[in-house]
Amino acid sequence: MPQLNPNPWFSIMLLTWFTFSLLIQPKLLSLTLTNNPTNKVTTTKPTPWTWPWT
């Protein structure tokens, strides 16, 4: 069964992970977010819904 032979696929997987780790990941991590996350504080309290059948 060729699926059980890791000889060609293991090297391809390692090469892919090294490429991602060394080349792509630093480029993605260097990008800055356009919208910085902020804590949203709600000051108004929601009013409860009045159900017509109660």
TrEMBL record:
One of its GO terms (biological process) is proton motive force-driven ATP synthesis. Keywords: ATP synthesis, CF(0), Hydrogen ion transport, Ion transport, Membrane, Mitochondrion, Transmembrane, Transmembrane helix, Transport. The chain crosses the membrane at residues 6-24. It is found in: Mitochondrion membrane. The keyword Ion transport applies. GO terms for molecular function: proton transmembrane transporter activity. It is a single-pass membrane protein. It holds the Pfam family ATP-synt_8. InterPro entries: ATP8_metazoa, ATPase_protein_8. It comes from the Eukaryota. GO terms for cellular component: mitochondrial membrane; proton-transporting ATP synthase complex. Belongs to the ATPase protein 8 family. This is ATP synthase complex subunit 8. It comes from Gallus sonneratii. The lineage of its organism: Eukaryota, Metazoa, Chordata, Craniata, Vertebrata. The gene is ATPase8.
